[in-house]
Write a structure and sequence with these properties.
- 2 copies of one chain form a homodimer.
- The radius of gyration of chain A is 21 Å and the shape is globular.
- Chain A has helices at about 15-30, 40-45, 70-75, 80-90, 105-115, 150-170, 190-200, 225-255, 260-275, 300-315, 320-335; strands at about 5, 30-35, 55-60, 95-100, 125-130, 135-140, 175-180, 205-210, 220-225, 285, 290-295.
- In chain A, α1 packs across α10, α6 crosses α7 and α6 runs antiparallel to α11.
- An 11-stranded mixed beta sheet of chain A has the order 3-2-1-4-11-10-5-6-9-7-8, with helices on both faces.
- Helix content of chain A is about 50%, strand content about 15%.
- Chain A has 11 helices and 11 strands.
- By secondary structure, the first copy, chain A, is α/β, with parallel strands linked by helices.
Chain lengths: ~325, ~325
C-alpha cells in the first residue's frame, strides 16, 4: 500500500481541503495518508469526519511555510515546517510520495534538496497537464523548475515526461514534441534547434516542433521546453481562462434577461469550467527527484488533493523513478557508444 | 492625407476582404488606399462596389506570396509579388504605410530588408495587443520578429512599445514591464534580469516584472520579452481562445434544449467572441522599420483590414518613427554620458 506524506498546511484552503482530500483518497484509492502539520489543528479538522476505519495518521510539524515565503527562506529557515517534515518522511522511507498544494517554489526547492535528484537526472522538471481539444491532455514540461536549460536537459525532460504520460494515461508510445515558433527564418532558437536534433536521434516517438497554438490541438502528448517558456505558457493559460470566465459571466448576465436562459447557460458554463479545471488532472509532478513529488495548485479543493494523491499512487506503483533511471542511463550509454 | 499600400493578395480571404476593407478605410478614415495585386482580379473585386468617389487606386503586381512560402523564398524569389511591390511603394515615398494580412514571416522579412531598419534600432519588433480585464489592451512585444534577443534589444522594444501605446491608446505614461516568471530562486533568467536592470535606469515608467497570468490583469500597458517567448504567449492565447470557443459551443448545444435558451446564450457568446477578437485591435505593427508596417491576422475580415489601416494612419500622423529615432538616440546618449 502506498503511503502518501501530505503537507496538510500547504494550500490556500489548508488544512480543511487537505484533510477532506486525505479522507477521499484513503477511502477511494486504497492509499495510506500521513497528514503532516500542526497536530492540534489537523486533528481538530480530522475529527469533523468519520475516519477511524481509514488508514490516516498525523505527524506533527511545528512550523508553516506561507505563500509569501521565498523558496530559499522556506528551505533554509523553516526546517520544522510541515513541508520539510513531510519531505523527510519520504527521504527516510516512512512514506512513498510527497503531496503538497503549498508554495510551488518552496516545494520544488525542498523536494530537490531534501530528497535529492535521481542519479541520471541533471535537473528535475515540473510537468503540467493541459486539457486539449481531443478531450485528452497534453503534458508540458518544464513549467518552472529551471531556466536557461541546456539541450541535453531538454532531452531528459522528454524522457521523463514520456514515462509520466505512459504511466498515467496508458498511451504506449506518446508523441513527443519541442515547443518552438513557426517562422522559417529562425525555426526556433539555438536551444530548440539543438534539443530537436538530439531528440531526433533518440528512441522516443519524437514528432518535431510544435507552436504555442498546437498545445490545445491534441496532436502531441508531451511537449518539452525550458522552464521559463513553460511557466509563461502555463500562467498565460491560467490567466486567460480566468479572464474569459469573467467576461463570459458578465456577458451572460447582461444579455440574458430570463431566469430560464441564465439557468440553461449556467449548466453549459459549469461544464465548460469543469473541463478547464486543471485540478482535475491531479497536480504537477516534479519529475527527477528521489521520491515521487506532486505539487497541487494553491487553490486545491478536496477533489484536487485526492487527484494529486491518485497520481502519486500511480507513479509509485508503476515505479516511475526506476524507469527514469533505467531509460536515462540507457540513453546515456547509447549516446556514448 | 496618409496613403496606405495595401497588399491586396495577402490574407486568407484576399482579395475580397482586402478590397472591402480598403473601401471602409477610404470612406471612414479619410485615407488614400493603393491596392497592390493582380490588377484584373483586384479591379473585378473593386467593381463590385461603389468606389468612384473614393481615393482608391490599384497598382499591378504579377506574383503572389502564399502562406506556405518560406520567408526567405518569398523575399528572394518573389520580387514581383504584391507584398514586394507594396513595400517598394513605401520605400520610394509613394505610400506612407504598408498593410498586409499575408504570411507573417514573409511580411517581416520583406519589410525589414526592403524598407530597412531605423538608424537607432538594432532589430525591429512585432507588437501585439491583448484585450485585458480592465477592458483595455496590453501590448506585448516582441511576438516573433526575433529570437535570442540581447538585453539592450529588449530595452529598445520597451521604448518602441511605449511610443506605440502612447500614440494609439492616448495614455501619457504607459506602464512598462518585463515578462518573467515568479519564483524567487531564479526570478526570471539571465536575459530578464539584465533587461530589468537596464529598464530601471531608463526614463520609462518601468514597473518591474510580471508573470504570464498578469498579461490579462490590465495592471501594465506594455510588456517586453524576447520574440520566442512572446510568440509562444500569443499562439498559446490564440489556441486557447479557439479551444474554449469550441468547448463552449459544444457545451451550450448539448445542455440547452430550448431554442430560446440557445438564442439567449448566443448573444452572450457572440459578445464574448467579439471581445476576444484580436482583429478588432488593428493588427500588429512591426516597429523599428523605416516606414510604418502593420501585419494583420491571416484570417482578417474587412473590419480587421480597416482597423489595421486605422492604426497605420494614426502611427503615420503621430510621426512615430521620428519619435522612435529621437528617443532611442537620446537614450543612447544618456547611456554613454
Amino acid at each position: 500500500m502506498t503511503t502518501i506524506a501530505l503537507d496538510a498546511m500547504g494550500g490556500d484552503h489548508a488544512p480543511r481541503a487537505e484533510v477532506e482530500g486525505a479522507i477521499l483518497a484513503a477511502r477511494e484509492l486504497g492509499v495510506r495518508v500521513t497528514l503532516v502539520g500542526i497536530e492540534s489543528v489537523v486533528r481538530q479538522e480530522l475529527n469533523r469526519h468519520r475516519h477511524r476505519s481509514l488508514p490516516i495518521d498525523i505527524v506533527n510539524a511545528t512550523d508553516v511555510i506561507t505563500m509569501r515565503d521565498s523558496p530559499s527562506h522556506a528551505f533554509r529557515r523553516k526546517k520544522d515546517s510541515s513541508l520539510h517534515v513531510a519531505a523527510r518522511l519520504v527521504r527516510d522511507g516512512k512514506a512513498d510520495a510527497l503531496v503538497s498544494a503549498g508554495n510551488t517554489g518552496a516545494v520544488m526547492t525542498v523536494a530537490r534538496f531534501v530528497l535529492g535528484t535521481l542519479a541520471s537526472v541533471d535537473r528535475p522538471a515540473l510537468a503540467a497537464a493541459f486539457p486539449n481539444m481531443k478531450e485528452k491532455v497534453t503534458v508540458i514540461l518544464d513549467v518552472g523548475a529551471n531556466v536557461d536549460s541546456k539541450p541535453a536537459q531538454i532531452e531528459q525532460f522528454a524522457v521523463m515526461g514520456e514515462i509520466y504520460y505512459r504511466t498515467i494515461w496508458g498511451v504506449k508510445r506518446p508523441r513527443v514534441a519541442v515547443l518552438s515558433i513557426g517562422e522559417e527564418e529562425m525555426k526556433g532558437n539555438e536551444l530548440t534547434r539543438e534539443a530537436s536534433a538530439r531528440l531526433k536521434q533518440s528512441s522516443l516517438n519524437f514528432v518535431g516542433n510544435v507552436e504555442g497554438r498546437d498545445v490545445f490541438r491534441g496532436d502531441v502528448d508531451v511537449i518539452v521546453c525550458d522552464g521559463f517558456i513553460g511557466n509563461v505558457a502555463l500562467k498565460i493559460s491560467e490567466g486567460l481562462v480566468e479572464h474569459i470566465g469573467g467576461m463570459l459571466k458578465k456577458a451572460i448576465k447582461s444579455s440574458l434577461t430570463s431566469q430560464l436562459g441564465y439557468a440553461l447557460s449556467k449548466r453549459a458554463f459549469d461544464d465548460f469550467r469543469k473541463r478547464t479545471d486543471y485540478s482535475e488532472y491531479g497536480g504537477a509532478p516534479l519529475l527527477g527527484v528521489r521520491g515521487i513529488t506532486i505539487i497541487g495548485h494553491g487553490r486545491s479543493n478536496p477533489n484536487a488533493i485526492k487527484n494529486a494523491s491518485r497520481v502519486a499512487n500511480e507513479l509509485c506503483r508503476a515505479r516511475v523513478n526506476e524507469k527514469i533511471e533505467q531509460e536515462l542511463s540507457a540513453a546515456a550509454v547509447a549516446a556514448r557508444s
